[in-house]
Amino acid sequence: MQIRRSEVTVFSRLDFGDDSGTSTVEYALLFIVAAALTGILLAIVNSSAVSDALSALIERALSP
């Protein structure tokens, strides 16, 4: 596939505007993903199987 010269000039003339605020959007997306992962981990840890396993592990560790 060859790119024609006219296509290159069209793409080089595109102006997507100011880049200010892009880092703010990236931080917002990172915060949303972190909150989602926290919710998933919290749901897993609060499940009965994990809770029972952790309780058994703690009881074994504390028993003489």
Features:
64 residues, mainly alpha, 3 helices, 75% helix
Q: Overview of this structure, please?
A:
This protein has a domain at 40-64. The termini are far apart. It is an all-alpha fold. The protein is built from 3 helices and no strands. The protein has helices at 5-13, 22-45, 48-62. Helix content is 75%, strand content 0%. The longest helix has 24 residues, at 22-45.
Structural class: mainly alpha
Fraction of helical residues: over 70%
Topology order in helix (H) and strand (E) letters: HHH
Shape: rod-shaped
From the alpha carbons, calculate the radius of gyration and give it in angstroms. 26 Å
**Major beta-sheet overview:** none
Low-confidence stretches: none
Termini, distance in Å?
74 Å
| Tally of helical segments | 3
**Strand-residue proportion:** under 5%
Query: Averaged pLDDT, please?
Result: 81
| E-strand count | 0
Topology:
Blueprint: H1 5-13, H2 22-45, H3 48-62
Summarize the model shown.
This protein has 64 residues and is an all-alpha fold.
